[in-house]
Amino acid sequence: MNNTSFNRRPFRDNRQQDEFRVNWQIRVPNVRVVRGEEQLGVMSTDQARRIAQDEGMDLVEIAPTAKPPVCKIMDYSRFKYEQAMKKKDAAKKQRSSAIQLKEIRLRPSIADHDVEVKVNQAKKFLQEHCKVQFNLQFKGHREMSHREQGFAVMQKVVAALEEQGVLDKQPSMEGNRIICIFSPKT
Predict the structure, then answer these.
(1) What residues does each domain of the chain span?
(2) Measuring CA to CA, which of 82, 135, 165, 186 is 20 to 30 A from 155?
(3) Neighbours of 184 (CB within 10 A)
């Protein structure tokens, strides 16, 4: 057995292949050619390539399944750049439209000044149109036996934020935590 061919696969480029075939990648004999809004008709691929080359453009196959395939004369690098910009803008709009949930953690033995700091942080999040979830966690049996202390802390938070946000979920006990959620006022 030849050692060099054992378990070898042909080399594959890991880069994502382009969606469109360009210039010499088009291997069909005849194509329908479009330039801008003008249709030039059906012609040989070589002739279409020459027309595109004379204009300093590329021949791009835009409809490979048509009979014959449809090719467009265009600046392919500019076309790819514009597509990338549209994709980037769409992703940016999608990200900005999604409301984020920010979590702020508290403890039942938190000092009043620390509660004010957490409330100010929550106000900033609400101004950025994010939802805010307050999560007050009890650790151990000793803290769990004084749940009223945790609810008192949460009532301070609710009273401080009722002007900036809408209380979506009242403070409620879930396991060893008290959770409440605020959403921004519109």
Answers:
(1) 21-85, 101-184
(2) 186
(3) 16
Give residues with Cβ within 8 angstroms of 7, minimum separation 6: none
pLDDT in tens, 134-155: 999 999 888 888 899 999 999 9
DSSP string, the chain: --TTSTT-------SPPPSSEEGGG---SEEEEEETTEEEEEEEHHHHHHHHHHTT-EEEEEETTSSSPEEEEE-HHHHHHHHHHHHHHHHHHHHHHSPPEEEEEE-TT--HHHHHHHHHHHHHHHHTT-EEEEEEE--HHHHHTTHHHHHHHHHHHHHHHTTTEEEEEEEEEETTEEEEEEEE--
Fold for the domain defined by 21-85: Ubiquitin-like (UB roll) (3.10.20)
pLDDT tens sequence across 92-151? 777 666 678 899 999 999 999 999 999 999 999 999 888 999 999 999 888 888 899 999
- CA–CA distance, 37 with 92 (Å, rounded to integer): 31
How far is it, in rounded angstroms, from Cα 105 to Cα 136? 6
